[in-house]
């Protein structure tokens, strides 16, 4: 008889020492003491119940300043405790950052979004994290606080290092995330492919933000980002460049889609093969640009299409 290997994983939460300070200083004391930051807990608690750790957590939900968010025409600023549900219910947020609003709408379920924070999705750094490509095309910056008064801003692109790994050093807290709102003649969108309609992670995803010339057709600037097709969400610089200076046509869209598919670095796993993911990227790039075109019709005289 061969030897039997059994993997024992607790399916219950281990005993956790939970701290609930009401000030940032209090949070830092707990972090220094080895506690892991707990925001909505929708990633961290399932992890803890599978792996039996971390045993010390500091819940940041009692820290009032981390609950703020502001939306103006130039920039959106979202505190670490703002939930995805709060954001999606805010009309100004949906108007200022349509791609990010699309991406939040895809995360989990209504109950989950009312618990999960935007910044928790960023700090989890999953290659399939829905908000990451959308935040990348809106040029997000993560606000890192090393200790009270020691703050720095890092572009999201630099912040994401590897699956589950970010630039956060031990003892640091991500206190917020800020990103560009749409300016005149701009539009953005996000699309993903999943096997199920809800409560599933993206097999591949694409976000784009386009700036149009005053004619409403010619692309003056572009950003494209891809999710679930590399170790981190990635910016597809060459794909975006291929659109600039051209009107959106079947040909320009398919050139952009082909370059994006070449740029990505997918793996094969139980969800899809690398080749299938590349094909999905092509389809999703064209879908996203099509969606932007539809939404951007409002720029054109009398809202007419081409
Ligand atoms: C059923 C289910 C469905 C899901 N569906 C999706 C989906 O469709 N798309 C998707 O992208 N994700 C999905 N998720 C994953 C998860 O919900 C998101 O990643 C969520 O946004 C995490 O936010 P949170 O506030 O719950 O983070 P938490 O679980 O509290 O934290 C996540 C990680 O980030 C760290 N962290 C959190 N905030 C900070 C901070 N301010 N500073 C430093 N570190 C911090 C924590 O220590 C932890 O390591 C799903 C999860 C579940 C359980």
Which spans have pLDDT < 50 for at least 5 consecutive residues? 1-6
Task: Specify the CATH architecture of the largest domain.
Answer: 2-Layer Sandwich
CATH class membership of the largest domain: Alpha Beta
The third-level CATH topology of the largest domain is Uridine Diphospho-n-acetylenolpyruvylglucosamine Reductase, domain 3
The strands making up the biggest β-sheet line up spatially as 4-5-10-6-7
List the helices and strands in order: EHEHEEEHHHHHHEEHEEEEEEEHHH
Percent in strands: 15-25%
Task: Return the domain count.
Answer: 3
Chain-averaged pLDDT: 92
Bound molecules: flavin-adenine dinucleotide
Q: Main beta sheet: strand number and arrangement? A: 5 strands, antiparallel
In whole angstroms, how far apart are the ends?
Answer: 72 Å
> Tally of extended strands?
14
In DSSP terms (H or I, runs of 4 or more residues), the helix count works out at 12
Global shape: globular
